Amino acid sequence: MKRQAYPYFDMANVPDDLCPVAVRPNPMLPGEWRSMKPVVDRAKCVKCAVCWVYCPVQCVVEKPAWFDIDYATCKGCGICAQECPHRAIAMVEEAA
Amino acid sequence: MGPTTTLLEPEAKAPGFIVCDGNEAAAWAVALARVEMVAVYPITPQSSLVEYLAKLVADGTLDAEIVDAEGEHSVLSVLQGAALAGARTYTATCGPGLAFMFEPYLRQPGLRLPMVMSIVTRDTLTPQSVWGGHQDAMSVREVGWIQMYCETVQEVLDTVIMGFRVAEDRDVMLPVNVCHDGNYLSFGATRVDLPAQAAVDAFLGTPNINWHAALDPARPMAVDPLTGGAGGPGPRTFVRYRKGHCAGMQNALAVITEAHADWARHTGRQHAPLVERYRMDDAGIAIVTIGSMSGAGKDAVDAARDRGIPVGLVKVKTYRPFPTEAIVGALDGVRAVGVVDRSVSFGWNCGPLYQDVAGALGRAGRQVPSMSFIGGLAGADLTTDHFGGVIERVGQLALDGRSGPTVWINEND
User: Fold this and answer.
1) Is pLDDT at B323 greater than 60 in this prediction?
2) Residues 6+ apart with CB under 8 A from B346
3) Paired residues of B367 in beta bridges
4) The whole model's pTM is what?
């Protein structure tokens, strides 16, 4: 049988008071609730990739001459800023 | 044809009768129900049951996967995965094993995953005890599993099979505990009729396990996501599942009754599904029992009847959901009730079954003098003499016209 991820399970025939299951992914991303975000200073970044190695959610993305952050999935933990040997990453408060 | 006295002889699978104990009877029921996955961890007095299962699988009588897990928590977790993949599952445990299983045990009924699990009842710690008693099963009575208590070895076999039918009914979808008394039923050997495989197949039909929740790449879903909380749709969603669970429990009363009736049609054996009324038709007083003690209770009722005491016995088979109407109906017209428990409700200083019976009578507006008797703890015998004393005390209640304090039956044994 060919495995497929879609379509989602059809709940139409299952009573809605039986068993808690979720058939739609929650669209909320960390970027919607993060309080601090890492900002890379491109002049200081030497592309050593320490931030890339340490990021627990793999949101560090490689650019031609520096590493940058995918703000959709970064949850603002600050590990990259802590570990960056060149102090090229600063944690900045998100706008309210 | 003579009885097959050797344990688990393959030829014994032919319909007929064997001589076996309750643990072996349960294992035979599992084989007849064509269970697809069992996970086991041995614990006294359940151990021989899972050893029988291992042998049935090893010799090919039972075509099932068997997982020798590292503990009861894993046993039930393994089976939840198997059930979510669609398998008919079974295990058995008791006492400290049941305690160690508690976290997945809580989850099973909320997931509405049908299965049958035997509790080979054992008194719980502490004091240290390896003997029979209902304290383990009674301690989990409010968790949302169906509980049925057996009186005889034959009833163990029949009820394990019926348990799958009840559990997998679409109006129920709940796990079932079939409780049989440790030592008394687990190791007491009697003649047991093995039903024909074809009769069991016709009775159970196709497994009906994971149509509503599944681990299946073709139907991707997150099972048991975070539900509830104080905001948004949380409270009403959580309440909706709780109410659905309660409705499933109540539906089980009719499904259990129908399953027992259909079982009688297939095998000719009739067991009382919810409560059994024994010599209750003209009874002035009644005792209420549960489990294997009921046999001695019935003998004592016969003896008391011979002495002219108009006593009857009501045996509770289905304890969760509690058959409130059946109990109130069975006790209609009696002037005093004594309830005998093999366990303790510490908070109420009485037996748990007593609480339930008193609650059912009270809600029905019935004021009946009643009394809780606690006996048979940690393997103690509940004899016909003990029951004779119970009947005498209940007769006195009817004369006094008011309820009495809890009696600890084996206090001086």
Assistant:
1) yes
2) none
3) none
4) 0.87
